[in-house]
Amino acid sequence: MLDEQVQNALNAQIEMEARSSHFYLAMASWAENQGLNGTAEFLYRHSDEERMHMLKLIRFVNERGGQAAIPALDTPQSDFDDLHSIFSTLLAHENKVTASINEIVGLCLSRRDYTTHNFMQWYVAEQIEEEALARNILDKLGLIGKDSGGLYHFDRDLGQLDPEA
Ligand code: OFO
Q1: Which of 54, 98, 140, 141 has its CA 20 to 30 A from that of 72?
Q2: Is the pLDDT score of 1 beyond 90?
Q3: Contact 124, 74 (CB under 8 A)
Q4: What CATH number is given to the structural domain containing 21?
Q5: Is there an atom of ligand 1 within 6 Å of 97 CB?
């Protein structure tokens, strides 16, 4: 049986992953409406990936004899100034997700739930990738500045980038 505190923390994480998916969906839609089709593709895939993170948690909670809670979601921010604001918002959001995952890992140790601790290692590794990717994209945007040719190539390249890679 899943420890109640651990279950509550995992259910809060399910909500966080669902909000990530919803948030990146709003960003993808904004990018598509700006004609930034490569960025939109990348963000649509990123949104799908977050849904997969949520699903993985739901299934784990249920498999361990707990009850996964499916959350209601608020309307996410849907208007952005530019790509820099999109990706800095995304990085700030991922930093919060990392902090939340670290809290769960700490809780698992204090509750001696080594099974969930082991399961959460996948998320720990995933957050390293997600933060590095967002930082890398922001660095590229910084190099491009206001150069529209650079932006064209950036958008095209991002469309081919796998957020999972
Ligand atoms: Fe699920 O990693 Fe981002 O939020």
Answers
A1: 98
A2: no
A3: no
A4: 1.20.1260.10
A5: yes
The answer to whether residues 91 and 129 touch, using CB atoms and an 8 Å cutoff, is: no
CB 108 within 8 A of CB 114: yes
pLDDT in tens, 121-165: 999 999 999 999 999 999 999 999 888 899 999 999 999 987 776
In this structure, is residue 165 part of a structural domain?
A: no
Closest ligand 1 atom number to CA of residue 53? 1
Domain containing 101: what range? 4-160
47 found inside a domain = yes
16 Cα nearest atom in ligand 1: 4
- What's the gap in Å between 35 CA and the centre of ligand 1? 25
Ligand 1 atom nearest 54 alpha carbon: 1
Q: How many domains does the chain have?
A: 1
pLDDT (tens digit per residue) in 82-113: 999 999 999 999 999 999 999 999 999 999 99
